[in-house]
Design goal:
Layout (H helix, E strand, L loop, with lengths): L8 H22 L3 H4 L2 H31 L4 H29 L6 H8 L19 H19 L4 H21 L13 H15 L1 H7 L4 H4 L3 H8 L8 H25 L3 H7 L2 H8 L1 H11 L2 H7 L2 H32 L15
Helix pairs in contact: 1-3, 1-13, 1-14, 1-15, 3-6, 3-8, 3-12, 4-6, 4-15, 4-17, 6-8, 7-8, 7-12, 8-12, 11-12, 15-17
Length: 358
């Protein structure tokens, strides 16, 4: 089980792969690189889905671990940790874009700022959100997940797993309904709505329960033995994105389950060559700075910025520099401050029935 301060190198490696997919998708679209341009949306989606599945797995693992060790989960501490983890880098980026809107005349609407800062931009059409803030839709999905899932975990302990199964089954049906009924006005946000993406997060959550389920019921052991190659093949379902009925139906859910399986397998142990790659220093470093890098790549890999730099290598270098600076000077500083604040509120002094995951 993953503890609160534990880092699993292969998981950092998977984060590194995910952010590389997002960056590669944006670069190929920016420079119109034909070999990958047609697949750029699929690559970016796969990277974001990987982040979602990782969030589901890691948050659930931390909640299970705390409940097992403390007998309860402290929601106050959980949300305090999420606040220090998520908000400082994101709000710094939004403030930077606000400044640029005055200095560089970047187009920015009030709804773009409020929806992004309030973490509900995923329910707005693309044309309502400024390009430099559009990528924050995925953070909105994650924040909505952080708000909802811990409450379910704490207050519905006997229904957790069945609710996850229900979400995984109903999400593709809901997506198909949205797609088939454009008059509802929901299809424009089908790729970003929390209610249409929740099966990816639920798959990550569910896989965190597998060791516990396998101990109590041997019928779950088959999950532990699914071939790694089959899981990789399953993720190729992202290529079916050009067939909306297949993609919004079964394919996206299959991809989500396979991604969750790969995340679980990375913790259990991949075959040595693959484990060595995912544990390599460059990839795990990219994984560690992936949140900040994801925030800043949008600014440097847009048409506006590219017209200034005029060079994809320079744009990538600036993107990497900004992401690393945000990680070392903002994320790590916020984490140190978080630890000082949490030290004043030990678990046993917290309200009953509410404790830390983080």
């Amino acid at each position: 089980m993953i503890g609160d301060n534990t880092r699993v190198r292969p998981l950092d490696g998977i984060r590194g792969v995910a952010i590389l997919l997002v960056v590669l998708a944006h670069v190929s679209a920016l420079v119109q690189w034909r070999p990958l341009q047609a697949a750029s949306n699929g690559l970016g989606d796969l990277g974001v889905f990987t982040f979602f599945a990782l969030s589901g797995y890691l948050i659930t693992s931390l909640l299970i671990s705390e409940e097992r060790s403390e007998g309860t989960v402290n929601l106050k501490r959980f949300y305090l940790k999420r606040t220090f983890r998520i908000l400082p880098p994101a709000y710094l980026y939004i403030a930077f874009i606000l400044l640029c809107s005055f200095v560089l005349a970047i187009e920015l609407t009030p709804v773009s700022v409020w929806a992004s800062a309030g973490y509900f931009s995923n329910y707005y059409r693309w044309d309502k959100i400024a390009h430099s803030l559009r990528h924050l839709w995925s953070l909105s999905v994650e924040e909505q997940f952080y708000f909802l899932w811990p409450f379910i975990f704490v207050f519905f302990p006997r229904r957790r797993i069945w609710l996850l199964f229900l979400v995984i089954v109903l999400s593709p049906l809901w997506r198909l309904l949205i797609f088939e009924h454009p008059q509802w006005g929901l299809v424009e946000t089908i790729d970003r709505r929390f209610d249409a993406l929740s099966d990816t997060l639920a798959a990550g959550c569910l896989i965190a329960f597998i060791p516990q389920l396998a101990k109590s019921d041997a019928r779950w052991n088959w999950v532990l033995n699914v071939p790694t190659g089959l899981l990789f093949i399953g993720t190729a379902g992202i290529a079916l994105s050009n067939h909306p009925h297949i993609f919004y139906g079964a394919a996206r859910t299959v991809v989500s389950l396979c991604l969750a399986g790969l995340i679980f397998r990375s913790v259990q142990g991949f075959p040595r060559p693959l484990a060595a790659v995912l544990s390599s220093k460059p990839l795990t470093w990219l994984g560690r700075i992936s949140y900040s890098l994801y925030l800043w790549q949008q600014f440097f890999l847009t048409d506006e910025s590219y017209r200034v730099t005029g060079n994809p290598v320079l744009a990538l270098g600036l993107c990497l520099l900004a992401g690393a600076a945000s990680y070392y000077f903002v994320e790590r500083t916020a984490n140190r401050l978080r630890n000082r604040v949490l030290a004043r509120f030990p678990h046993k002094l917290s309200a009953p029935g509410i404790g830390a995951a983080g």
